[in-house]
Amino acid sequence: MSTSWYATLPSGACTMTAPVRDAPYEDFGCLYPTFAKTFMNWEMPTENFPKILEFMENNSWLPIVTVTLYAIAIFWGQHYMADKPAWDWRKRLAAWNLFLAVFSGFAFMRLVPHLLHNLWHYDFQTNVCADPYTLGGFGPTPFWGTVFAWSKFAELIDTFFIVVRKKKLMFLHWYHHITVLLCCWHTMISGSPSAFIFCVVNYGVHTVMYFYYFLMAVRCKPKWMNPKIITVAQILQMVVGVGVCVGSYKYAGKNGCFADPLNIRGTLFMYASYLYLFCEFFFKRYLIKTGNKKSKAA
């Protein structure tokens, strides 16, 4: 490992060493004591934290089997519900969306101050190449990053509600759930530093998105909250993802950069495909439909 990435770290009382790989990092709680007062014991990594990563490295079959069963369950579920009435699970759906909105919002608030600190004090190359422990430290940040990867299993439940309520299941929906789960797992075991950026942006977009779905489920969506806002936010997320991947690819695997070339290529393909699909959805849903309405009105 080249020490060039560590050169950007100021030597001071808040520079510490993580118990994993002896990676130096700036302790965020030390830098910002007021923020540190909000840290909870269950958020702080313990000696079991490296064991979680080791488990993920040794069990790459788990996400593969999960998405396979997920795909089978989708088509079986649609076949099962074909001649049955839709389930009236609006209240359960509302509760589920509210839970995901609160969860995403709390995680976003936990991580975004640390990410802003890194983006302000470190250059782009450092943010996409440094040891993940150097960027994330050894506090709540790695905890919420790990929870992010595992939360992609729970988000598969979104599809269950669509199937049992007999709503239209878009290719974009199940393709997104499958690929993001596989990508997040590989990103964790490959230790891609740019994952910090992707994680925070995704938490932020999901906070707004799931809260919007909650309001829709309880029929309390304000008139000013146009659904276009959600799609535009999702498109911007994909633009950020593509931009970070393109920008970091030239550094991947070179001069001690922790960015894994295979992971960067896979993540770039994933974000690029999402960008295309979300833009296509936006065009068909809002531009063509709006154009047709104007034509009929004329």
From TrEMBL:
It is an enzyme of class 2 (transferase). One of its GO terms (cellular component) is endoplasmic reticulum membrane. It catalyses: an acyl-CoA + malonyl-CoA + H(+) = a 3-oxoacyl-CoA + CO2 + CoA. Its EC number is 2.3.1.-. One of its GO terms (molecular function) is fatty acid elongase activity. InterPro entries: ELO_CS (IPR030457), ELO_fam (IPR002076). It is a multi-pass membrane protein. One of its GO terms (biological process) is fatty acid elongation, saturated fatty acid. It is found in: Membrane. Its main location: membrane. Pfam families: ELO. This is Elongation of fatty acids protein. The chain crosses the membrane at residues 61-81, 93-112, 143-164, 171-189, 195-217, 229-249, 269-287. Belongs to the ELO family. Keywords: Fatty acid biosynthesis, Fatty acid metabolism, Lipid biosynthesis, Lipid metabolism, Membrane, Transferase, Transmembrane, Transmembrane helix.
